[in-house]
Amino acid sequence: MDLTEETKNMSINDQNLQTKRSGYIDWQEYFMATAFLAAKRSKDPSFQVGACVVNRDNKIVGIGYNGMPIGCDDDEFPWGKNTPSPLDSKYLYVCHAEMNAIVNKNSADVKDCIIYVGLFPCNECAKIIIQSGITEVVYLSDKNGHKPTYIASKRMFDAAGVKYWQFKPKNDKIVINFTGIDWENMSPSK
Ligand SMILES: [Zn+2]
């Protein structure tokens, strides 16, 4: 079923029903969608990635997207890629989504957690993932998998026993529509 349409009609369809509604998204879709929503916060003009760290109780403990470090002004630091001096391109400055999700965690640690991320982690993020105790990586795209950076990530994950697998979404899109829920016609709670 088209999830958009389903969401639009959910208050009508669910009225007076005794069973749970059927169109809800599952945990994996929810966590990957959360990573994608976080990516929308990125100011990077050419590359938006989000990450979501989840514990084994399905609780989100960290969310991040790629961005400049705290205190490093988005408008003053460079976002370019192929500049004559490396100091004028973004690479030396930007914090990747995985790093931000892990460092900004709201739990004591992320041991045995799962990280959901749009793009397969680079070697630097792979190190942080391993050192933080995360044991599973769920990614959507591995488009750069042939590059040394990502081959190195897999070599480290394999050695460290970090499981990784590609997420295949059941729905092409999950639309967040602020006017999509018909509050007026929803059954009142007693
Ligand atoms: Zn990275």
Brief description of this entry?
This is Probable deoxycytidylate deaminase. Its cofactor is Zn(2+). Helices cover 28% and strands 14% of the residues.
What best-fitting shape do the alpha-carbon axes yield? globular
Structural class: alpha/beta
What does the oligomeric state look like here? Answer: single chain
Order of strands side by side in the largest beta sheet?
A: 2-1-3-4-5
Mean pLDDT across every amino acid position = 91
Low-confidence stretches: none
Q: State the helical fraction.
A: 25-40%
| Main sheet summary | 5 strands, mixed
The CATH class assignment of the domain at 27-66 and 96-166 is Alpha Beta
What's the N-to-C terminus distance? 31 Å
Classify the fold: give the CATH topology of the domain at 27-66 and 96-166: Cytidine Deaminase, domain 2
> What is Rg?
19 Å
SSE series = HHHEEHEHEHE
Count of strand segments: 5
Q: Note the total helix count.
A: 6
**Percent in strands:** 5-15%
What structural keywords apply?
nucleotide biosynthesis, 5-stranded mixed beta sheet, zinc, dCMP deaminase activity, 190 residues, Probable deoxycytidylate deaminase, binds zinc ion, alpha/beta, Cytidine Deaminase, domain 2, 6 helices
Commentary on this structure:
- The chain contains six helices and five strands; from the N terminus they run αααββαβαβαβ.
- Helices cover 28% and strands 14% of the residues.
- The protein is globular, with a radius of gyration of 19 Å.
- It is α/β, with parallel strands linked by helices.
- Helix 5 packs parallel to helix 6.
- It has a domain of 111 residues: 3-Layer(aba) Sandwich (Cytidine Deaminase, domain 2), CATH 3.40.140.
- The two termini are 31 Å apart.
- Zinc ion binds next to helix 5.
